Amino acid sequence: LNLAIWSVDHYIIQAEWANISIRSVKHNLQYGFKFDDSQFIMNQFLHPYHGGLYFNAARCNGHNFWQSTPYVLGGSLMWELFMEIEEPSVNDLLTTTLGGIMMGEIQYRLSSLVLDDSSMGAERTWREIGAGLIDPVRGLNRLFNGKTKKISRQKQSESQSILAEISLGGNTVGEGMSLQDGKRSPLIKTQLVYGSPFIKEKRKPFD
Questions:
Q1: Could you give the CA distance from residue 36 to residue 86 in angstroms, rounded to a whole number?
Q2: What CA–CA distance (Å, rounded) separates 33 from 145?
Q3: What pLDDT digit, counting tens, does each position of 107-149 carry?
Q4: CA 167 → CA 110, 125, 183, 191, distances in Å?
Q5: How far apart are alpha carbons 187 and 206 in whole angstroms?
Q6: In whole angstroms, what is the distance from residue 103 CA to residue 206 CA?
Q7: How do residues 169-201 score in pLDDT, each as one tens digit?
């Protein structure tokens, strides 16, 4: 997974920080971790999303929630130390690991709501595409191991009902003395309650 993402950064995007070498790895190991002040969308969204890919690489191959968590830390450590020339970042490691675990489990559960191995035809195709957009690693995994075409009598066992709320609007980030000085951006807010709130049940690890 890391090699695939690095290849895109290095050969297609041609990012300068992707020009890794033995020298850059040695420098990172000797320098140690620092605080990274990259843009908000990079540190607070893209890093957790990246961590979610690690998580679901394990989750969709049969591991439960807790068994999948070490893969996120391992993948993040590998990236910070070996896959870029910038010194490793302690906050990137934390947001990729902790945010990736949370985002990865959300992606896995939402994709389970979409998937239905008992469906066929056009419905099956759209379900597989939709689940793949939600959880790309799981989608590729199902494609490679033939699950996208395998017909079963039962729907995915992980699926449960959810209560969903979506809000649309605008947001202003203050950069000066008042909000009028800030930058206006569109805002999408989602809230999901997993499982029925009216049924007493255990939903580890998110009770």
A1: 10
A2: 38
A3: 998 898 899 888 889 999 999 999 999 999 999 999 999 888 8
A4: 18, 29, 20, 9
A5: 26
A6: 13
A7: 887 765 554 545 557 778 888 888 877 767 776
User: What global pTM score does this model have?
Assistant: 0.80
CA 125 and chain centroid, separation:
23
**DSSP conformation letters of the chain:** -HHHHHHIIIIIS--GGG---HHHHHHHHHH--B-----HHIIIIIHHHHHHHHHHHHHTTT--HHHHHHHHHHHHHHHHHHS-SSPPBHHHHHIIIIIHHHHHHHHHHHHHHH--TT--HHHHHHHHHHHHHH-HHHHHHHHHTTTTT---SS--TT---EEEEEEEEEEEE--SSSGGGSEEEEEEEEEEEES-TTS----TT--
Whether 51 contacts 78, CB under 8 Å: no
Residue 136 has phi, psi (to 5 degrees) of -60, -40
